[in-house]
Amino acid sequence: MAFAPRYGGNSAFLRTNTLVCENFRVMGENCNDIWDRASRNNRPKSGIYKIQMPGLDAKDVHCVFDQGSPKTVIQKRTTGDLNFNRDWRDYKYGFSTNVEASPYMGRTMSGGQRGPRPSQCNLKEYWIGLEYIHALTNAGFNNLRIDLERWNGEEGTVTYGNFDIASERDQYRLNSVGIFKNDGNRDLGDAFRGTGFGDQGYSQYDKQDTDHESMAFSTYDRDNDLYEEGNCAREDGSGWWFNRCSAANLNGKHYGKRSSAFKAKNDASFDDGILWMTWTQNKFESLTGTTMMLGGIDINKNPLDSPTLDNCQAHADSLFLKEKLNEQNAEDFNGVYKIWADRYRRISKEVECKFYVKLDTPCGLTLIQKRKDGSEDFNRNWADYKKGFGFDVVANRGPRPGVTEGWLGNDAIWHLTNNLNSQGLLVEMDRKYDPRTKSDNSAACRYNEFKIGDERSRYTLTNINGYSSVSGNPGDAFAGADFGREGWGNDREITQHRGMKFSTKDQDNDADEYYHCAKQDKSGWWFNGCSAVNLNGHYYSSGVGEGGSKGSQMTATEEFDDGILWETWTASKWESLTATRMYVGDSDIMNVIFTWESARKRS
C-alpha cells in the first residue's frame, strides 16, 4: 500500500483504520508531546491519538512516530469519501470522516462539535483545521512533510523546513514554506513556489501567478485570492492558499484511484483535482493520496530550558541515548544549545550545534565562527576577541533558533580544543556565484587536528593538521598559498598559519616586521605576513575586496586584500567570500562521519 514502508508499522496505515487508537482521553498537546511524555521502554506507535492544544478543543489526529521523529498529520486524502468543498468555518476548525454527520459541521455554544460521538476510529480523510495548524507552527513545529501518490501507484515525499501560517486576523496567510527538499528517488518539484504550465498555461507569468507563499487562505465564501476575474476556491471546489490560482492544491476534488484520476479536459471543466503540477506536469491529473504532517522542536522550550553540557557532542550523545536523534532527523535538531565555556563549569554560552548520525554514531559540532551578511563588525580589539561577540540568538522558527554572525571567543575556543577530547575543525564557505564560469559557489573542508594555546601564548594556532576536502575541493589555505602574479615570490612561506599568534588591531603579534596585518585587514586572526586564509576579514557583499577586479569594481583609497579570504579556492586575494562557518568537534567521531560521507559519494 502507498506510503506504508515509511511508517514501519501497519502496512495499511493511510488507507484503513489503524489498530492503534488512543482517543478515549487527551494524550498530549501534540504528537511530539505524546512522544516526550512516554518512557523510553514504552514508546507510542503510529496511530490515532487525541490531542488538545492550549485554547482549542480536543482533536483526534494521526500521529506518525517515524524512527523517533514525531509528526502531527494535519491533512489526509485517501478514498475521496470526505467532501473538501467547505466554507470558511469548516476550514477554520477542521473536519474529518471520524465525526462527519452532516454537510455542515459547526461548533456549539459550549465550544463542542455538532454531531454524534464517534463509535470507532475512522480517520481515512481529514483536515485538522487552520486554527490548529496556526497553533502548531506558532509553537515551532514548522517542518512540513508531504507524502504524495499518483493514480498509477507512484509515490514520493517532499519536505519544507519552515512552514508557517498567520492567524485568522491575517486570513491564515502562508508566511513561508522554508527550504525545499525533493524526494530522493524522483523529481516531485517545489509546487508551493509555482511553476510554468507550458501548453496548458496562460502566459509567461504562470510561475509567478501560482506561487503560494504570502497568499491568504480562501474558501468559496471567503475570496482572498489574487484572481480578480473569479474565485479560485469556488472554481476549484476547495479551500487553499490560492494565488491566481495554483500549482499545488492538495484539497482539490478526489477523482478516484485508477484511470479515472486522469481528468479529461472539456469546455466547462476546471483543473480542480488534487494538484502537484511540478510532478504530474499535467494540471488535469488528480493525485489519489496525500498526507501533510508537521514536526520539529518547540522553540519555547529551547535553548533556555535545555541542560548545559560540555559541548555539542555531549548534546548529540544525550539526544541519541534518549532515542530522539537519528540518521533521518538529525538536521531537525540543529540550532542553539547551552555549553560550558570553561574547565571549571562556571561560564556557560549559548552556541549553535550541527548534528549528524552515521553508523549508529552521533556527532555534534560546535559553531565557533559565522559570517553571512556583514551585520557584525569583526574589526574588534583584543578584549572582544578574547570574550567573543555576536552570536545573538534569533528565533527563526523551524526547527530551532539559530545565531547571528559572531565569534565564540578565544578563551572558549581554547577550552574546547584543550580540555576535551582531541578536536577537529570543519570549515564551510560560500562565494559569489559567477555566471560566466558557472563554478560551484560552496565548498567545505576539515582538519583532523585543531588546537590553540591560551592567552599567555597569545592564542597561538598550535595545531591545524590533517586537511581533507569535504566538498568543492577548496584547498589547504592554512598551509599557505602561492599568489602568482598577485604575490611577492615567497608567498607560501609567509602565509602559512600554523604556529602563528593571534593578532588584533590593538595587539600586533604577526610575523611581519613592517606591517600590522590585523589593522590593515580589519580583523583579528592568526596572521603571518599576512594570510592565505582570513575568515574574519572585512565583509564585501559584492564578493570582491577593495582594489580587486573580479566582479563589480570597487574604489579604494588603500588597496589591501582585506576581505574574507580563502586563497587556495578563489585563486584571487581580491575575491571576498560571502559566507563562512567554522565548527569544532571530536576528531575520531568526525572521521567516522566524513569518511562514511566520502565513501557514499564515491559509490
UniProtKB/TrEMBL annotation:
One of its GO terms (cellular component) is fibrinogen complex. SMART domains: FBG. Signal peptide: none annotated. Gene3D superfamilies: Gamma Fibrinogen, chain A, domain 1, Gamma-fibrinogen Carboxyl Terminal Fragment, domain 2. One of its GO terms (biological process) is positive regulation of heterotypic cell-cell adhesion. Residues 22-298, 303-588 form the Fibrinogen C-terminal domain. Its main location: secreted. It is found in: Secreted. InterPro entries: FIB_ANG-like, Fibrinogen-like_C, Fibrinogen_a/b/g_C_1, Fibrinogen_a/b/g_C_dom, Fibrinogen_CS. The keyword Ubl conjugation does not apply. Keywords: Coiled coil, Disulfide bond, Glycoprotein, Secreted, Signal. It comes from the Eukaryota. It holds the Pfam family Fibrinogen_C. This is Fibrinogen gamma chain-like protein.
